Amino acid sequence: MGIREQWQSRWGFILAAAGSAVGLGNLWGFAYRASEGGGAAFLLLYILIVLIVCLPVLVAEMVLGRSTGSSALLAPVKAAGDRWGLLGWLFVIAPLGIGSYYAVLMGWTLDTFFHALFVGLPSNISEAEMFFGSISSGTSVLLGQLVSLLLTAAVVAAGIRGGIERLTRWGMPILFALLLILAIWAATLTGTWEGYRTFLLKIDVNQFFNPSTIRNAFTQAFFSLSLGIGIMVTYSSYLDKRKQLPKEALSVASLDTAVGLLAGMITFPIVMSFGLKEVISGSTVGTLFISLPTGLGTLGVTGRVVAILFFALAYIAAITSSISLLEVPVSSIMDRLGWNRSKAVFVSTTLLFILGIPSAMNLNLLGKIDSIFGGVLLILGGFVLSIFLGWIVPRKFDEDLSECNSNIRVRRYLKFMLRWVSPPIIAFGLIVSVIDLVKNWSA
Ligand code: PHE
Prior knowledge:
Elements: H1 10-21, H2 24-68, H3 75-80, H4 85-119, H5 125-135, H6 138-157, H7 160-187, H8 192-201, H9 211-224, H10 231-236, H11 245-273, H12 277-281, H13 287-297, H14 300-337, H15 341-361, H16 363-392, H17 394-403, H18 408-442
Helix pairs in contact: 1-7, 1-11, 1-14, 2-8, 2-9, 2-11, 2-16, 2-17, 2-18, 4-6, 4-14, 4-15, 4-16, 5-13, 6-7, 6-14, 6-15, 7-11, 7-14, 8-11, 9-16, 9-18, 11-13, 13-14, 14-15, 15-16, 16-17, 16-18
Residues 20-21, 23-26, 95, 98, 223-224, 226, 229, 231, 321, 324-325 line the site of phenylalanine (PHE).
């Protein structure tokens, strides 16, 4: 094995980590969850969870990666011994689970993009539903999934600097620019305020106590930050000691949350101004791919251009996330079995393709796998991580942060939160989520 690769620059790491965080979760997931009725309560809970609970866990996850310099599979063992091997496995299994259906969603995104570009937009809702039906079934869905996985594999095979860092350095600024342009455009639509109000600003105090809203807020916070399942361990293992992790974590979380909000400011006005509220409140995993093109379809050429830009943006966001999902098993295999990068990429990609076939074929199943792998497991991982760095190896946390000279008050604050605040709150979120999920499934 050669020397471990390293990020070229501070911004290289931040953009890569933010690239992992910003993804379909911000565009598709945020719209999908915010429209399930939580309104302002959902939004507020989500932001509070990010600020109070997730930020310290994000720093903890980064510390684990940097201080061990190991892949996600081996980092817990290296930090605290063989008894923690299971945590390493959680870190590999969860990204594989998400990666399997994430490529399916990417396939839908790519198809919708090409359709808008070459064919046009649907002229009514039933046409849009038919189109979505065609891209989400048969060989077309498998093709979209396969192409997306191959693109992801090509980037990861090119390595940390040559692949991941290079793509995110270009992709993220383009993504931010497109997002701003579209949000400004959306603000000029007639239904804009109606849209913000209905989905994001409507206050209903009961929603704070609604288990589904609580589960949605926790899931959105963890999923959107790519938190709790070893992604940040993996990316931070390529960092040197000079980077101030609390600062980097704050940048990543701010960028991610800002993108989520901006995305909501694009999708909801579109949905509202074209009277598609009914479609979106019967929210399913396909909502974004049906309501958005239909709404934009009524706007002629402008609508088509917006659709092309929006789905291009979504695809860029998605690929900078899917590379992080693939990098976890790849680096773990390289670490554990000593294989070279290309071979590890080939095997992991093949595995992801096979694992994703059931989700590709069955939307219902995709939703269920998403609630487990993209929901419960991340919250569980976040809980274990805060216990791990807060209670099991707290010295590691201190040492690593003091080596990079982070402010002592910040350090104390983070450690306090990690030990006393995050675990009970995450445990609460986890229990509510599991109960709510079981209830939904058995209903
Ligand atoms: N955070 C990514 C998104 O918002 C998805 C993701 C989740 C990526 C977990 C890696 C790990 O789309």
